[in-house]
Design brief:
This protein has 81 residues and is mainly alpha-helical. The chain is built from three helices and two strands; from the N terminus they run ββααα. The chain has one domain. A two-stranded antiparallel sheet has the order 1-2. The protein is extended and about 45 Å long. The mean pLDDT is 85.
Length: 81
């Protein structure tokens, strides 16, 4: 299940779509800004630049057709466990 998207209006959280969950089900909400800040907050300017350079290189390799079969890679990773 994908996390539901919601917006705050007049101090209330309104979901963009209905959820198929039982009544009175309790959910915990976390702001997207706080997730991005926590997950990306450990990088300094140099680390962020290195990350972006690696991502750019990966995209160039994919555009050139230099890719790996995901099922094979996943199988190899599972064998290591």
């Amino acid at each position: 299940m994908q996390p539901p998207k919601a917006q705050v209006r007049n101090g209330r959280v309104l979901l963009d779509e209905p959820l198929d969950l039982p009544d009175r089900n309790v959910m915990q909400l976390q702001l997207v800004d706080s997730i991005v800040r926590v997950d990306g907050g450990d990088l300094d300017e140099e680390g962020r630049a290195q990350l972006h350079a690696e991502l750019e290189t990966s995209m160039d390799e994919a555009d050139a057709g230099d890719t790996e079969d995901f099922a094979r890679v996943l199988s190899e990773l599972r064998q290591r466990l």
